[in-house]
Amino acid sequence: MATDRAPSTALVGRTRELDELLALAGISEPAARDVVLLGGDAGIGKTRLLRELGARARGAGHRVLVGHCLDLGDSALPYQPFAEAFAAVPAPDRDRLADRFPALAALLPGHAAAEAPGVERGELFASVVAALDALAADQPLLLVIEDAHWADASTRHLIRYALVQGFEGPVHVVVSYRTDDLHRRHPLRPALAEWVRLAGVRRLELAPLDDGDVADLARLQASDQLDFEELRAVVQRAGGNAFFVEELLEAGHGRGTAPGPVPETLSDVLLVRLERLDEQARRLVRAASVTDGREGFAALAAAAGLTEVELDAALESAVDHKVLRRQGPDDYGFRHALLGEALRDNLLPGERRRIHAALLASLPADAPPATVARHALAAGERTTAFGALVRAAQAADRVAGYDEAAHHYEQALELVDAAPDGTDEIGLVIDAAHALVTSGQVMRAVELLREGLAQLPAGAGPLVRGRLLVAIGNTAYFANLDREAHEASLEAAGLVPDDDTVLRAEVAALQARTLAARRADAEATTWGERAVEIAERLGTETVISDAKATLIRVMVRSGEDPTTARARFQELIVRSRASGHVLGELRGLHQMAFVLFNAGALDEAEQAFAEGKRRAEETGWSWGPYGFDGRYFGALMAYLRGRWDEALDLCDVGPEAPPTLAAYLGSISLLVAAGRGDVPQIERTLPLRVWWRDEVASAVHSSAALIDLYAEAGDLAAARRVHDELVERHDRMWDGPWFPGRVRLTALLVGQYAAVAASLRRDEQSALVAHAAELWAAVEGVVERHRAFGPEGRAWQDRAAAETARLRWVCGIDAPEADELLRRWRSAHEGFVALDDPYETARSATRLAAVLLATGEVDAAGALLTPARATAARLGAAPLLGEIDRLAPRQGGGPVTLTPREQEVLRQVALGLSNGEIGRRLFISTKTVSVHVSNVLAKLTASSRTEAVAIARRQRLLDD
Question: Which end of the chain has the least Cβ crowding within 10 Å, N or C?
Fold first, then answer.
């Protein structure tokens, strides 16, 4: 382990960073509880600094555990660094931990993790945190996780959980990573941005050493005295990188010989050193470059073609030449990971294949399946690789490593022609699709299942086809492909005999769900009850939960009391959780949240969505069906209730999220952009629109936002096209043109018509009024088909009616009386007040105030405009502020109040810094800076950053 031995040389140039680490890690400041994220380029000195930290921690009486994230490519093991750290705990302590925390057995060597029953991700994560706390009970503990840039997705989730959860005892954590590996799409990059915003998390970046420190390091490491020119050459060529200094010296630069040209890449520098090794040592290190450190000496000797005696000599030579180093009593590793990478890349294809084959043949029977698969694939042993990949996928699935499981399953399917006789290939396809769905790749799962169905042989029996059809129906349902889901369920119902079998119960539950989605409630009830009947006889909890959720949904739609419905869902949630049926639990939370939302119980609905998000994170279903919905609808609720910055935070998931789901969250972000008049977002969202077409809610939200944004940009024709395209797509792909979201789109589009109508010619006004009449007729058609509209639907229905009346009033075409117009706008305003939707309340209040002003009720209008202006300023809703100012211009731009963070951002704006520069200075994201700047401009009623600074100076808002 990198920090497991005492440093052999003095630490050069890192005194300040070491002092800071010692304080943050609780060595010099015992009360500290900070977590440190230690970054720096490869070779910059992170490992050396951590080795010093480890030595100081042990000297101060701390227990030190170290785990490494390994660069295993496609064979990443879930939670590798934590498993390695726990492996260093003495066996008696490990046994006690296993007894006390059974879920931890999967990470403890010697505790039969492969045979252990599956555990929920939340239980595993909580056990890890509790186990570390238990180890710290008698002495402080320092946990070091190295090379997090190679961490698998499951490890990143566990690190995040530990940072959020925190520790009760003196547990200190340091996580290191390479900054030069963090390209724009690297999954660790957004994770770091999130982690560093958590309380008690500090980020420490190692800068290159200065020239004086590099010279000191070179003098310290050179066995011979370096003259000035030799030393200057090393300093110039090292670029402040400690590892480059070492490598340049070891490669002969500055050792009394004329230095050759500086290698263009680090690989060139590293490979020069191999020429000084003897043949046996070269064979050894080339073989070692393809290992993951778990094969053992016997396998390594076989791969290098060495006897035990030759292996000892080769090890000694490699250590003497500082290619390998001792890492423990019986373990060796490359002195730097980049050495192994350079060697591995330099192997010829035939040589690499022979080494992998030798390692595969020498692996013990209990070797990790991912390790077996990696060597078997590279050696061309397809049958062996297939079996190992399936076992690796199953092992990852047991510990909620769904991302890794999906990848292993897909690799196995590519080798299915090499599968042994008797392999359940259909089951493998279905398992792969399940892992893809759970990791958020729903459309990929649909495609995989479609392909499996298309490739079924002509003689495949009805049960085989039925299994695939049920899987397609369920997955298509999750992907909002309602028509495909229903067609699959119908075909499956005709193929699978109506007997007491699990498959028939699954068919009945699927039929119930797809029929309920089509509002064929009577048929859905019949099928749902049949599913429950069969499943209860067979004791199949998953089907019982599925069918009962559908039955409760239908009952709610038929008018059942929301309190009763909530109790039914709560019972279902508890039963699903007790049986370990995650999907059933999450579906229950999701549907209960909507029952509460439609009943106007917004606080309770938000709590249900938040609980769904929390349970999804705990169980590894963050991107799976209903799990993702907790985040998605949580963000939507935050938007609707006027917490726009919170909504943006929930939508900011970075590249680690599946692109479809990131695009769905992007539709919520776009609503905030529309409210703030951020017209450039129209172009920035073009790449996301293809994904919005696959999901009804996202299609409606994004279309609503684009109607407002196009209108703000002055392109009313484009706003109308957005409306028409969604209606056409809904009719073609989903369930006809009569969808509830159409009421909201009509209200927004007609509202934009009314906003510009006064400036149009008479014929243009007539065309708008005629189109608005068509839109209102469609609204009436929607209402007729959806009689059970909730409070939100009724509020938008009233708003659509009010906007239609406003348009006729502005145009003077079939204009309503003032009393009718006031009545309609009061009704719309009251509807959004009841919904606790501050933005739409403020918009409705502003338009009601316009009618009041026109009828001479100035005081009543002012009473509405004052809170509306305050809401618009708080939200940064520039278009609404402009609308209010046109009705009642602000007098003199009176003093305003900025939050401390807004003042901080404004000071940076006054210095002329860009949003990106401000974000780096204040350690917040550029998006968050943009939000604060928008808020400041709105509060100061400024049209530019320069004007905002001028107003702030006049009002003495920048005074210290």
Answer: C
pLDDT tens readout for residues 817-842: 999 999 999 999 999 999 899 999 99
Query: Any idea which residue has 């498959």 for tokens?
Result: 503
pTM: 0.70
- Summarize pLDDT for 873-919 with one digit per residue, the tens: 999 998 999 899 888 766 545 567 787 778 888 888 887 777 777 76
- By CB neighbour count within 10 A (0-12 exposed, 13-18 middle, 19+ buried), where does 296 fall? middle
Mean pLDDT, the chain, rounded, equals 85
By CB atoms closer than 10 A (0-12, 13-18, 19+), residue 732 is exposed
Closest CA to 41 of 231, 293, 248, 266: 266
Query: 642 and 875 in contact (C-beta within 8 Å)?
Result: yes
With beta carbons less than 8 A apart as the criterion, state whether 674 and 709 touch: yes
Distance, in Å, from the CA atom of 697 to the CA atom of 332, rounded to the nearest integer, reads 55
CB atoms within 10 A of CB 377: 22
DSSP letter (8 states) at residue 761 = -
Joined together, the tokens standing for residue 572 give 């279902």
Residue closest to 255 by CA, chosen among 220, 219, 230: 230
User: Distances from the Cα of 782 to the Cαs of 557, 754, 777, in angstroms?
Assistant: 16, 22, 9
d(CA 928, CA 923): 10
- How far is the CA of 398 from the CAs of 13, 78, 119, 392, in angstroms? 46, 10, 6, 10
Enclosing H/E stretch for 862: helix 858-875
Do you know the residue count of the chain? Answer: 960
Phi, psi (5° rounding) for residue 102?
-55, -35
Q: Which residues pair with 68 in a beta bridge?
A: 146
Token look-up 């007894």 returns 99
Burial-class residue 603 by CB neighbours within 10 Å (0-12, 13-18, 19+). exposed
Closest C-alpha to 739, from 693, 790, 696, 792: 696
Dihedral of CA atoms 190, 193, 196, 199 in degrees, nearest 10, equals -90
**Pairing mode, strands 141-146 and 63-68:** parallel
List of residues 6+ apart from 776 with CB closer than 8 A? 746, 750, 800, 801, 804
Q: Which run of H or of E encompasses 65?
A: strand 63-68
How far apart are the C-alpha atoms of 376 and 932, rounded to whole Å?
Answer: 54
3-state helix, strand, coil in the chain (%, to 5): 70, 5, 30
**Which burial class, exposed, middle or buried, applies to 555 when counting CB atoms under 10 A from its CB (0-12, 13-18, 19+)?**
middle
Structure tokens at 344: 């591995």
Q: How far is CA 29 from CA 33, 60, 106, 598, in A?
A: 9, 11, 34, 53
Other CB atoms within 10 Å distance of the CB of residue 428: 19
pLDDT in tens, 501-540: 999 999 999 999 999 988 899 999 999 999 999 999 999 9
Helix/strand/coil for 205: strand
Phi/psi for 558 (5° steps) reads -85, 0
The H-assigned helical ranges of 599-658 are 602-619, 627-640, 644-651
Structural domains in the chain, sorted by start: 15-207 (3.40.50.300), 212-262 (no CATH), 274-367 (1.10.10), 892-960 (1.10.10.10)
End-to-end CA distance of the chain: 50
Side-chain half-sphere exposure of 32, counting CA atoms within 13 A: 21
* Inter-helix orientation angle 541-557/521-538, to 10°: 150
Average pLDDT estimate for 667-694: 83
